[in-house]
Amino acid sequence: MSLIIRNLHARVKDGAEILNGINLEIPKGEVHAIMGPNGSGKSTLSKVLCGHPAYEITAGSVEMDGQDLLSMSVDERSRAGLFLAFQYPVEVPGVSNANFLRAALEARLPKGEEINVVDFYKQLRGRMKELGMDTKFTARAVNEGFSGGEKKRNDVLQMMMLEPTYAILDETDSGLDVDALRVVSDGVNAMRAPFRSFMVITHYKRLLDYIRPDVVHVLYKGKIVRTGGFELVDYIEAHGFDFVRNEEE
To answer: Which domains does the chain have, with CATH numbers?
Structure first.
């Protein structure tokens, strides 16, 4: 089973088209990196897949394990196994991390079932230990007053607790120092499995040195213009994205 994107076009509502015919397939068990210059549509792609209301699909289709993803509500996409780690994680004042995660997990259970609280906190503290997070963050409001690095760790904590089938990481390396980058990457790598896939969106090689992708795609002007292996990451590191601009001319 796979996440399959066919000829996807999307725009900001009442605005210009940003995605101009994306074709992409991410099979189960693989990590795919999406790279490209600023303004190429990388973050737009992640938001469109997760159902952000600011964007309008103008053509194309997306299937997730045979289901029509675009016909689902945001809630349904999440419960079906899709997860987005935001480039700029949002704050949720007044809601503790523990209560937020518990509610999210219970939303995936059959009606009337509840999570075992003891098991939940045992798992939560174990995951926080893996990410080098102080357990005091269980009682703090989601991302409120967190540093940039703390927010990114918290996003990965949410992913580790929710255990999605398809995880999209939108510039997770942004704002991380070397130590935090290593810890966050270790958390992601610990989740790699034959039944789970990742779309890793980044500008830089430094994240992909830790989260080694199986396939690398270059997105430019809303289209996938180049696909390859890790050698493509090395080429971009050495030459930048001028080669895609030059090929277009």
So the answer is: 2-90+165-248 (3.40.50.300)
